[in-house]
Amino acid sequence: xxxxxxxxxxxxxxxxxxxxxNLQKKQDLLIFSPITAYPFVRKxxxxxxxxxxKNVQVEWSDEALTRLKFDMxxxxxxxxxxxxxxxxxxxxxxxxxxxxxxxxxxxxxxKGVDPERIASNTKAAATAxxxxxxxxxxxxxxxxxxxxxxxxxxxxIYPALEENERIEALWKQIFHITRSDRSDPIQAWENHMDxxxxxxxxxxxxxxxxxxYKAPGTDLTIELAKDHLWAGGGMVNEKGxxxxxxxxxxxxxxxxxxxxxxxxxxxxxPLNVSGNVINHFSLTFxxxxxxxxxxxxxxxxxxxxxxxxxxxxxxxxxxxxxxxxPISDTNLIFYNTLFDENASCHLAIGSSYPFNLKNGRxxxxxxxxxxxxxxxxxxxxxxxxxxxxxxxxxTADGETIAIFRGGNWAI
Length: 411
What we know:
alpha+beta, 5-stranded antiparallel β-sheet
């Protein structure tokens, strides 16, 4: 392992706690982590207590046990989710706890598993955790997602390297992409947030009515909700505390009008969902609804995502990310949505974020729908950006402005 690894790991944990969560004194923290990430978790827990945390709890998971369940448990096991667990998460959210997710999935974990079992399991978990999920989707609580290398994940990215070499190579990328290798990572993040804020101000001032996407396999028009707001980088929770949900993050994003999406869009990167890879796919929309889809790999899994509920037939997010960004410039496919979505313009099937609508945080689902938002149990990002993508924005008075050319900012 690299000579300064412990120092870099310490910085990464510091960025996670101070930038991502911005943990406050006497605040509780719940960490969701695979057992393989325990060295990083220990660093993060130490940083959390140094920041004044009251209690830090860890929910461990093990992919081997997950696979055993999918292979051996009866079908009805995938239609249930422990109510005590969902209630516990909800209780913590109601008491202003912060939540850290360490997301390092094996892209092939559930390869060969019946997609029906995966879809049932995902839907049961989403249904049971709907209230808890609303706390996160509405940015009512602070939460952040980071990733830590695993043997299986690194093998997918660097198949030609030995295990130690590929894990070290992935660590180097993560440290660089998350700005943890800078002499002052916290200052580097403050500068980055300032840059994203400039883009947000531009888009919120222009208040585009429509976005037009053109690329190989893509010819798509997306109307934006009338009272939409652009967000990105940092957010502010219900208590007024800033936090950064994704480490790393390079996007700004907003709310498409539920019934205002028309045309076809082609994916540009693989999508890893619940241990299944979906690749080389396209979606066709009419009046917002997905009316057709194709996929060279993972078609059955994609169909199950679309059929989660009525809302999963519509879009909930439109996000802009330049092709030239720290993640994209690695020229790697990470098979991890946290990284791949921040290397590429993307869209999301499913639920909208209430904070992407003026006064949306205080609206119920019926009010959100009335303002053009989409509601669903799911929210799945998929990547559509490339060096060949062009995007034009159309204002309410008909002015057309070039936003992206050659995959990068034209504004």
